[in-house]
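Protein folding task:
====================
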Amino acid sequence: MSSFSLEISPEDLHRRLQAGDDIQLIDVREEMEFEYCHLPGSLLLPLDELPRRAAEIRTEGPVVVICHHGVRSAHALSYLRQRLGRTNVINLRGGVDAWAERVDPAFPTY
């Protein structure tokens, strides 16, 4: 995951997490969605709270932003990169839906 990459596939994220890579996971869905299902170790930071809670996202080391299908996380990525100059943030392509489909069939879907 270089600082130039904007997206990571569910398979690549899974491989990196299994390898023990130090990746901060930021979930920008709503609390109700997060409570239903989320990747272990994720920090819930709903998209509408991002501007006031951006300090909770580390500035060094890879950060993967997660949502349901990858749309809200893409908005978060854009905000973090363009407004705050964060180059260490990456979008999970397809969100938790793609994670369930391609990595963990037991992961809850909605």
